Amino acid sequence: MDYDKILEGKYPAKQHAKRVTDYIRQKVPNATGVLYLEGRATKLLEDNDSEEPFRQRRYFYYLTGCALADSHVIYDMDSSKTTLFIPPIDPESVMWSGLPVTAEEAIQKWDVDEVKYTNDINATLAHLGAAKPTGTVFAIANQVSKKVTFLEFEHKNFSILKEAIEVTRVVKDEFEMAMIAKANSISSRAHELVMKKVKHVENERELEAVFLAECISKGARNQAYHSIVAGGRAAATLHYVDNNAPLGGKQLLLLDAGGEWDCYASDITRTFPINGKFTKESRAIYDIVLKMQLECIAALKEGVVWDDIHLLAHKIAIDGLLELGILKGNKDEILANRTSVAFFPHGLGHYLGMDTHDTGGNANYADMDSMFRYLRVRGTLPAGSVITVEPGIYFCKFIIDPYLKDPKHSNYIDQDVLDRYWDVGGVRIEDNIVITKIGTKNLTTAVKDPDEMEKLIAGN
């Protein structure tokens, strides 16, 4: 994919608005009127005169591609006209922040038909409402400013628009794919730079700095999430974020980090030896996790049930742990009893887009089956969706000890063998995968072959 060429164009906001309108009309036949959304408002830090870090509201961005704070948008469902409202020039703020984007600049920059200033919003809404006596204003509950009124609209719907955008966002267009690919390219390079540096640093925070520096230098200033830089046993904590422990004497470094490109995320995990060479135990676990990931990716295509792929990952994990002697007994009984959840407690992955854990996954955290409870995606996968595939095996005493005390599970775990693996901590490998009609496309290019990683760390 030539993502740089694709990204020379405009973010396809009007195409998104049409898809959202089509979805609403499936649920509300013959719906007419307008879609109304607000961007995120500027907000000061508590007890401080500085602004909070800004990230645009996802629903607004999907229909505009505009990252300006304090903005609004109206999309006329009948004429397919998009009107963007941006803040007017405040002379007192210019000396602090410089000149803002003008209406003339905005119309060239974003995929909209008209640009006005925000002091025109109520007059425009009143005009549209009077012209559409049977129309509806579709907005999102609790995301409408008190100063905005819908008085001229007889019908108001605050429920369907959020749902429509969340469902529509699951399938990405070419431009969205290009943004995720760009984020992946930068982040993959940053992962490899961390591998090159890992032998030469003393603390996790130094490696976090390496990753951030590369992302920022390549234009991905914002991170999709707080990085996980976990050495040794800390890698058994799934969302470890301290990133400040010394690395001496530890086997593996788990790096889960991803920059974003214009509000679109990457989410990549690599696990590699700190001293440049896997131990026997860490290589054995790494090979199992890599097999889990590769075989799960190979099984993916449009219409596949994600639950089935997650189950496949557990079956491969069980086979591998049986071969090592960590598990013992009948593999079908181990699966039926869910004993493998002690070592692989999370879901296989999640949708990816503007959010790291993107919308539309239909998770069921009330599921009584421990193997499926934490799946962030349930059901069939559509072509055009982007999903992470991130199997892992972890040695977390807090999670595993209760299994060792429960005869239902302890009969299948050899504690003497297990004791040799605590220092492995955890291994996770995560790539960002596009689902196609016949298979997949992997957007993540960071090296994950264990021999190649050892060469990279060694400087070869």
UniProtKB/TrEMBL annotation:
Name the UniProt record assigns to this protein: Xaa-Pro aminopeptidase
Obligatory cofactor(s): Mn(2+)
InterPro entries: Aminopep_P_N, Creatin/AminoP/Spt16_N, Creatinase/aminopeptidase-like, Pept_M24, X-Pro_dipept-like
Catalytic activity: Release of any N-terminal amino acid, including proline, that is linked to proline, even from a dipeptide or tripeptide
SMART domains for this protein: AMP_N (SM01011)
Family, as annotated: Belongs to the peptidase M24B family.
The UniProt record lists the keyword Plastid: no
Function text: Catalyzes the removal of a penultimate prolyl residue from the N-termini of peptides.
GO biological process, one term: proteolysis
Organism: Podospora fimiseda
Class in the EC hierarchy, top level: hydrolase
Molecular function terms from GO: manganese ion binding; metalloaminopeptidase activity
Alphabetical UniProt keywords: Aminopeptidase, Hydrolase, Manganese, Metal-binding, Metalloprotease, Protease
Residues covered by the Aminopeptidase P N-terminal domain: 11-146
EC assignment: 3.4.11.9
